[in-house]
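Hi R.,

Here's the chain you asked about this morning:
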Amino acid sequence: MNFAYLTLSLLLSSCSASIRGSFNENHNRHLKHSGSSNDGGAVTVRDGDCEICSRNNKDNKPTSLMIQYSSNGVNSYYQNANKATCTEGTYPSSTTISVDGFGDFDVSDGDTFVLNGHFGAETTFEIEDSDSCMFHTSCSVPLVAGDQIGPFLILGSDEICSSGGEEEDSECVICDESNKVRPEFLTVRYHADGANSKYQNENKASCRSGSYPNQSTITAEGQTFDVSDGEIFSLYPRGDRFDAETDFTWSDSNTECYIHTSCSVPLVVGDRIGPFEILAGNDCEISSEIPSQTPSAAPSMMPSEKPSTQPSGSPSGSPSGSPSVLPSFMPSDKPSSMPSSKPSSVPSDIPSQAPSDSCIEAEVRRLAGNKVVVDIAFSYNDKGPVASDWVGLYPCEDENLTPPFSKEPAIWAYTCYNRNCRFEPFANGVRNFTFDDATVPNFGTQGIYNKLEDIIAEKPGCYVALLNRIDGDSPPPYYNICIGNEIELY
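And the predicted structure, written out as tokens:
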């Protein structure tokens, strides 16, 4: 009886050892591949994968890693259990991951995030509601784009092996640590459904995933935007350049957040930073996403009330001898001192100056010290806004001219307000701004144009706001998009 028990025990022990040996052999066979020993020797990379670095290729030691999170963990093909404790298994579908020296990341299944900085021999991930784990990042064993190490799929590093081995040219880097030219503007699309940035972690961008208002008014850099889900707008710095952080505030909620705009972390076209999808900045642009800014030669959406029965004469081949102060094709630093004194002898091809609808409103406000400002609000996306569109205040009596409002305005500014944006690639057709002597650009108040305080002192009375479009070489009258309400300046 004792002999039989001993014999059975030995057989079971032998069988168990055989099973363990077979499992380890198969597991190691999975971890290894032709030409790779997982000791950092020569590596034969799987088709579709891209080696970032290894023992024989340490020049490419990463300074950043783009990683995609998956709740379904798998064993690494290149790093065995001695080098990576992040292994196969089930991980939380949504969690917070803390990476020492890199920050915290709120992730869900399929989300991507980027680690920027110095990598040690091992990088450890603290996973909320799960165990911590690490994988090797010193390049003594292969680090490969396309390899999944536990819940972490390696997508790429810096400009090496982007997206599993293929160079990624669909995402254009506006600026980053190696190119710190801050953008002169950012064009973004608003999403009510926010997402976490691939490039800016929560230490750099507090605009994160979550629900945002479907429609709202957002203030940023002193500019106000009426937005709805899918709306595109362009943001410009308040001063000469964007600060390290650009803050956004929602008027109808307690929501506020910021994104990083100093370029110490990447700003990338196509990236979603909270509710803001980056579409353009510097030399980067998703051209298919940004509406064309070239209007038709005769915009059909702006019908005149009384169209001419005869076609206009052939346009002049040269501009008038004394060009208008309002912008010419090549803007100058200072407007000319004298506008054209006579209308062109050739009949104007400008349509009637009194469209039936109104897309602009003006309101006078009095500030401390009896200072007067004029608030302007317009909405005309249905009329194809272009960056050279502009707003002017005209004396009400100019409506009696032939054609109406065929003189220069008393004061004016482009619809972007705070600069000459005539040749910029994008215009926002829904916006508010304020004519204020302290902020209005010089070109709108110099020469024959006036500041509000001068208008009130020298020619007070009834004024009307017009939203206009430059036509031809821009002598008046201008192509009128719509006429606003009357206001009193005194």
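The radius of gyration is 32 Å.

Let me know if you need anything else.
M.
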